[in-house]
């Protein structure tokens, strides 16, 4: 063995490469994607649609133009999810923190929202899509609130894609709300404190009845979860795409799904190993 090879081998031994890559940036250089087979698709996809503002400013346009372009991308991704048989899609459209943006930008977003729910509802209903709003709908301006409630009511019995749109949403606020609902249920004598387990907690979240998120996608190169679905993302695979949200399309979405399909999900266990019959004091979950 040459000295060079020996040095590399020793280097690998003492500084092993990470065996599990949990974060994969998707770049333009990735190979052409293929849609994974149905059994390898995530049941629940969540997307943080980031980069509308930068997309617009980069073109010398007002930020509202970025949100308008982002709405086109959103329409396409909802259609793709429906075409490909994704069970549930959760989109982060407006956080509780977004109210702090300028009056013009908030106004533009509210306008787009109203327009979207008016123009798309027929197609979504026809496609058997069930719409759920994640977040504090009561805190939305009246015209938007009415449109959202109507959309939820109209599609409540649909059995196709579960489309969740997070509006006036904050993850910590969702957890706090669930804790409050549980406390009320105890106070009203409906349950005992001992009945509070993970299922009881999950049943009080906006996503009650849905599986946890399998795949989180965030565009624009930012790598954080920004108070989005903290409970539901616990074991989600994360894929970060460099492109700005208005540039996100079916091809990029498919790439993210391929990256997901290639991941080794172990949920804290070890592949191929039977679960132990002993109950450990603490779970070593990674
Ligand atoms: C984040 O980009 C995006 C938002 C806060 C809004 C997302 C809204 C839409 C995609 C369209 C409207 C939604 C519906 C349901 C019709 P950013 O503005 O923070 O981008 P930046 O980080 O580049 O500033």
Would you kindly provide a written description of the structure presented here, covering whatever features stand out?
With 286 residues, this protein is of the alpha/beta class. The chain has one domain (46-263): Undecaprenyl pyrophosphate synthetase (3-Layer(aba) Sandwich), CATH 3.40.1180.10. Helices cover 39% and strands 14% of the residues. The chain has eight helices and seven strands; from the N terminus they run αββααβαβαβααββα. The protein has helices at residues 3-14, 52-57, 63-84, 103-126, 142-155, 171-187, 198-202, 250-261, and strands spanning 23-26, 44-48, 88-95, 130-134, 162-169, 215-218, 237-241. A seven-stranded parallel sheet has the order 1-7-6-2-3-5-4, with helices on both faces. α5 links the parallel β4 and β5. α3 packs parallel to α4 (103-126) and α4 runs parallel beside α5. The chain is globular, with a radius of gyration of 22 Å. The chain starts with a helix and ends in a 25-residue tail after the last helix. Mean pLDDT is 89; it is low at 6-23 and 279-285. The site of farnesyl diphosphate has 19 residues, from α2, α3 and α4.
Residues in β-strands, percent? 5-15%
How many individual helices? 8
Q: CATH homologous superfamily - what is it?
A: Decaprenyl diphosphate synthase-like
Largest sheet, if any?
A: 7 strands, parallel
């Amino acid at each position: 063995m040459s000295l060079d090879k020996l040095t590399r081998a020793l280097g690998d031994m003492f500084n092993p490469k990470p065996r599990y890559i949990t974060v994969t940036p998707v770049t333009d250089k990735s190979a052409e994607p293929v849609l994974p087979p149905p059994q390898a698709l995530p049941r629940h996809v969540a997307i943080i649609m980031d980069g509308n503002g930068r997309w617009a400013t980069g073109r010398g346009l007002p930020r509202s133009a970025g949100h308008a372009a982002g709405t086109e991308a959103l329409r396409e991704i909802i259609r793709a999810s429906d075409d490909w048989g994704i069970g549930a899609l959760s989109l982060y459209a407006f956080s509780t923190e977004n109210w702090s943006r300028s009056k013009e930008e908030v106004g533009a977003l509210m306008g787009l929202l109203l327009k979207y729910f008016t123009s798309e509802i027929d197609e979504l209903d026809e496609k058997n899509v069930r719409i759920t709003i994640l977040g504090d709908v009561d805190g939305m301006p009246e015209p938007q609130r009415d449109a959202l409630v109507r959309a939820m009511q109209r599609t409540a019995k649909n059995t196709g894609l579960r489309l969740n749109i997070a509006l006036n949403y904050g993850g910590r606020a969702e957890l706090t709300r669930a804790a409050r609902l549980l406390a009320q249920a105890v106070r009203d004598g409906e349950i005992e404190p001992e009945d509070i387990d993970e299922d009881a907690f999950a049943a009080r979240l906006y996503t009650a009845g849905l599986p946890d998120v399998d795949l989180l996608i965030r565009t624009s190169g930012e790598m954080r979860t920004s108070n989005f679905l903290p409970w539901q993302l616990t074991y989600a695979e994360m894929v970060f795409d460099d492109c700005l949200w208005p540039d996100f399309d079916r091809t990029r979405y498919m790439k993210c799904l391929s990256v997901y399909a290639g991941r080794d999900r172990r949920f804290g266990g070890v592949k191929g190993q039977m679960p132990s019959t002993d109950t450990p004091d603490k779970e070593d979950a990674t």
